[in-house]
């Protein structure tokens, strides 16, 4: 009986998690926040790019220059993208998750998931993760 209860609770947990991650309609404000940060990187305007980061990210990197160096080294496709396309947006409770397909200067595609939080009516980027793409070997 105990196993049945645990199994039912596990299934319910997975179902509610899946519901919480349903795609939602495009959000122009979220897309604008990400695009404006990318545009700032392209213009080498690190102070503006840094301003789109959530307070937790700003606290971690402390200065626009340190933040810019991390992006340049760790996310070169964001630093100098060739093409940017916004795909799926999901509401994950306290954060929104926006997937972005970026083609780099060499024509390679990269799928990234941006995490955003609402800070006083302004969307701020709280993290970015490079995702594996289906059908693409590492």
Architecture overview:
- Strand 3 (96-104) and strand 4 (109-119) form a beta hairpin.
- This protein has a 5-stranded antiparallel beta sheet.
- It is of the alpha+beta class and 138 residues long.
- The protein starts with a helix and ends in a 7-residue tail after the last strand.
- The chain has a single domain, classed as Nuclear Transport Factor 2, Chain: A (Roll), CATH 3.10.450.50.
- The protein contains 6 helices and 5 strands.
- The radius of gyration is 17 Å and the shape is globular.
Helix/strand-derived category reads alpha+beta
Low-confidence stretches: 4-9, 11-19
Residue share in β-strands: 25-35%
How big is the Rg? 17 Å
Average pLDDT level: 87
Task: Give the topology, please.
Layout: H1 2-20, E1 23-24, H2 28-42, H3 46-51, H4 55-61, H5 64-74, H6 76-79, E2 81-91, E3 96-104, E4 109-119, E5 122-131
What are the defining features of this structure?
Nuclear Transport Factor 2, Chain: A; about 140 residues; 5-stranded antiparallel beta sheet; alpha+beta
Brief overview, please?
With 138 residues, the chain is α+β, with helices and mostly antiparallel strands. 45% of the residues lie in helices and 31% in strands. The chain has a five-stranded antiparallel β-sheet with strand order 1-2-3-4-5.
């Amino acid at each position: 009986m105990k196993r049945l209860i645990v199994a039912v609770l596990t299934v319910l947990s997975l179902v509610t998690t899946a519901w919480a991650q349903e795609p939602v309609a495009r959000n122009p404000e979220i897309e604008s926040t990400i695009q404006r940060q990318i545009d700032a990187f392209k213009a080498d305007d690190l102070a503006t790019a840094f301003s789109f980061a959530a307070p937790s990210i700003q606290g971690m990197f402390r200065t626009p220059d340190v933040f810019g160096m991390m992006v340049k080294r760790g996310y070169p496709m964001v630093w100098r993208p060739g093409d940017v396309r916004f795909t799926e947006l999901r509401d994950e409770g306290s954060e929104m998750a926006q997937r972005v397909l970026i083609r780099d200067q060499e024509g390679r595609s990269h799928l990234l998931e941006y995490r955003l939080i609402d800070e006083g009516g302004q969307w701020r980027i709280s993290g970015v993760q490079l995702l594996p793409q289906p059908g693409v070997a590492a």
